[in-house]
UniProtKB/TrEMBL annotation:
One of its GO terms (cellular component) is replication fork protection complex. It comes from Campylorhamphus procurvoides. One of its GO terms (molecular function) is DNA binding. The lineage of its organism: Eukaryota, Metazoa, Chordata, Craniata, Vertebrata. InterPro entries: SANT/Myb (IPR001005), Timeless (IPR044998). One of its GO terms (biological process) is replication fork arrest. This is TIM protein.
């Protein structure tokens, strides 16, 4: 691509750099770095998350997210993933 040098003039995120090096359709095919790490929430996990939130939201002096993470059946979830899912729900 003769015009690729123009893209180098602007700041890039890691996702944009991955697209530039592997091709612009790589993230749509699920080959990008963000797609490989994030596992979708199953309905059972969503229900468990909802129940844990209602159980721990009223506890004084305790971090709600930390309590939820300690009791989630799926140990691979991060704090950010749990917070993002709670906000969406």
């Amino acid at each position: 691509n003769k015009k690729a040098f123009v893209e180098l003039l602007f700041w890039k995120s890691p996702v944009a750099v991955c697209e530039m090096t592997k091709g612009y359709s790589s993230l749509q095919e699920g080959e990008g770095p963000a797609r490989s790490r994030v596992h979708p929430w199953t309905p059972q996990e969503e229900q468990e998350l909802r129940e844990l939130y209602w159980k721990y939201k009223e506890v004084e002096g305790e971090d709600v997210i930390a309590a939820i993470l300690a009791h989630l059946p799926t140990p691979g979830r991060t704090r950010r993933q749990v917070v993002k899912k709670l906000v969406r729900m």
